[in-house]
Amino acid sequence: MLCIAVEFLAGYFVASRPSSRGMPEWPPHPARLFMALVAAHFEAGAERSEVEALKFIETLSPPSLRASGYNERRAVSHFVPVNDELNIKKGGPFPLLRPRQERQFPMVRPDRPTVYFIWPDANPPQGIVAALAQLCGKMTRLGHSSSLVSAWVSEPPNDCLLQDMDCWTPTDQPEDRLRCATPGLFEELQSLYRTEATAQYIELTLQAAVKDKRGREAKAKLGKEFPGGMPQPARPRVEFTAGYARNFSGTPVGHTVWDELLAYRLHPVEGTAPLLDICAAPALVGGMRRAIMAAAGDFGPLPEVISGHSAGSAQPSENPHCAIFAMPFVGYPYADGRIMGVGLAVPRACNPGDFAVLRSAMGRLCGANGGLRLGRLGLWSLSPSLEFPAIAAIQPRRWTGMGADAESWATVTPIAFDAHPKAKDSKAAGEEIAAMIVAACNRIGLPSPDHVEISHVSFVSSGAPTAYEFPRLARKDGSLRRQAHARITFPHPVVGPVLLGAGRYRGYGLMAPQRKEPAGG
């Protein structure tokens, strides 16, 4: 067995999810640990034994992780000097004089500051263990430079140390995907770090300082081969991910089939009405779906996860696919139900290639020549939600309930029934509808609720219209589906987004987590 322990010395971890720069990463991905070890290798004196140890780590299967629960800090914007701006006229080496750009630093504060990365089947030679211990001693951070850490090669932790810590293990039925190291990653990182080019630049710079023929030749070569100055490291991208499931040591948490939420702010273009009411959600979702499919088609065959249809067929897909929904301003004092943005719930089963197509399509829609045309509702531009951290309605955590321990959820848009209730008695019809909602929860991966309440009025405190005010969805035979609002209480906290019923892929049945009332009133 091989185990590496990492302790966050300041009690927090700053790193963003690769797919959503405004959301924090937890637990730390195994690839992030590997990249931190590689950085320590290059920054604190590269030794051959360390290279062998890093290449040994590459060959291992994805590790299991032991990590505690956490609290998420609300992301705020900071305006910081641009690190790679070396123009003397723009401040050069003086940070206070450089231009500033907006940055966000998503942070979590774990309940326990130590994380364990465990390779149970590893059998490293003694020399490899010694080199890894040396690398861990050189490592000072994990994630952002403010995430100061102490790392060491640990003995397998005992049950006392692992108390109240969740176990993340690789699985074929994942609830999340974590980036992991694979063979060849060290060479790729070495190339991106540009160690050889940097060494050549330094050597030529020293030679050019000598005022003789050799110095003049070095100076000319320096200007020819390095016109932009010292080579700068490139940001690494790790594409390989492994599926992980979490075994809870404490209260279990349920997850839906969607594990990524991409959120975008809507802006009215000149000549367009300044706002959209939540009852316009069907038109918004329909227009958004058509725009995404048109943009994604330019990047190759349309993935099933985007179209919602089986490959090469007009038949609806039997697998979970992307759900689109409006993000309204509801549930807060003075909320008026206006649509602030649009969300894309991406299923856990989406492979990296299809996800890249989706991101490329959204990048085009967010570009200068993009936008969303909604017929009589006008032209709207789109921007990633991380550019507007102060707008709570378009932040993913508003609809996922991440970190809120949300057991109670209420609909913002009504649930469209899968079937028309057959019972004549109102009480029996209510029980039939509740049973349909329980089945709808199971269908998206959630546990059966303990309690279901049905109403034509939303249980969200403010901003959500009644079920009567929303357009009714049509069946294939042309008849209209019945719909209602609901409040659901689960046996334990769940993480969204939660979309239920026959219209879940079209923005109906959208639920928001309900805030817990403080104890003692």
Note the topology:
Blueprint: E1 2-8, E2 13-14, E3 16-17, E4 20-24, H1 30-43, H2 48-59, E5 64-67, E6 70-73, E7 77-81, E8 100-104, E9 107-110, E10 114-119, H3 126-138, E11 149-153, E12 166-170, E13 176-179, H4 185-193, H5 195-208, H6 213-225, E14 241-247, E15 254-255, E16 258-268, H7 281-296, H8 304-307, E17 323-328, E18 339-347, H9 352-365, E19 372-373, E20 379-384, H10 396-400, E21 408-411, E22 415-416, H11 426-443, E23 451-455, E24 483-489, E25 494-495, E26 498-499, E27 510-513
Parallel strand pairs: 15-25
Antiparallel strand pairs: 1-10, 1-11, 2-9, 3-4, 5-10, 5-12, 6-9, 7-8, 12-14, 13-14, 16-18, 16-20, 17-18, 19-20, 21-24, 21-27, 22-24, 23-24, 26-27
Helix pairs in contact: 1-2, 2-3, 5-6, 7-9
- Overall geometry comes to globular
- N→C terminal distance: 51 Å
- Strand proportion: 15-25%
Helix content: 25-40%
- Averaged pLDDT: 84
- Write down the Rg: 26 Å
Which class best fits the helix and strand makeup? alpha+beta
- Could you list the spans in which at least 5 consecutive residues all have pLDDT below 50? 85-92, 517-521
As for the number of domains, it is 3
Largest sheet: 7 strands, antiparallel
For the largest sheet, list the strands in their spatial order.
11-1-10-5-12-14-13
DSSP summary: helix tally:
11
- In total, the number of strands is 27
Q: Any descriptors?
A:
521 residues; alpha+beta; Alpha-Beta Plaits; seven-stranded antiparallel sheet; six-stranded antiparallel sheet; 11 helices; globular; disordered C terminus
